[in-house]
Amino acid sequence: NGAVASGGTGAARSNGAAGQSSENSKLTTVLDAVELTLNDKKIKNLDNFSNAAQLVVDGIMIPLLPEASESGKNQANQGTNGGTAFTRKFNHTPKSDEKDTQAGTAENGNPAASNTAGDANGKTKTYEVEVCCSNLNYLKYGMLTRKNSKSAMQAGESSSQADAKTEQVGQSMFLQGERTDEKEIPNDQNVVYRGSWYGHIANATSWSGNA
């Protein structure tokens, strides 16, 4: 019953691929980025501005590496005992929304007026991210869960929208990675390029593709 997305790199090539020149050669690299929703098994192209270390969803940029990573850039962060932390799980609240999660100003001295259905305070989503692999700068994949804040659910009790009353709004998987532009791969004389990748992520759902 698992959904299989074949040719994953091709799925992202139309809109989700961004090109940039490699510093070490004349080759042009392409960064594919896709999101697979678990409910309807649809693939959506993402635009992460040519940076596999950041995830851009709903117009929000989510850093996939901690600020305390060794270089502060796209480098693997260290785990316990000097080892590499291959996976990382964290919650992300947009900076612009952190102030909204604070208690609202009481209206005419009435504290009950704050964080009600008519108040915008706290009506935000938290993004729970589980991402692999910190040791690979050019590839990131994992699970993304969108959650309502507690105040949003309280406000949603008076709403007719079902997703406003629950904590978990939606869950999806994401895959983004850097590759060489197919047009730039040498194929004359005896030069042959061969490569493949395969990923398996929980719940019998798998990504597979060949390049």
Automatic annotation (TrEMBL):
InterPro entries: OMP/PagP_B-barrel, TbpB_C-lobe, TbpB_C-lobe_sf. One of its GO terms (cellular component) is cell outer membrane. Transmembrane segments: none annotated. Residues 1-10 have a biased composition (Gly residues). Residues 17-26, 102-118 have a biased composition (Polar residues). Residues 28-180 form the Transferrin-binding protein B C-lobe handle domain. It comes from the Bacteria. Its main location: membrane. Pfam families: TbpB_C (PF17483). It is found in: Cell outer membrane. Residues 1-26, 70-121 are annotated as: Disordered. This is Transferrin binding protein 2.
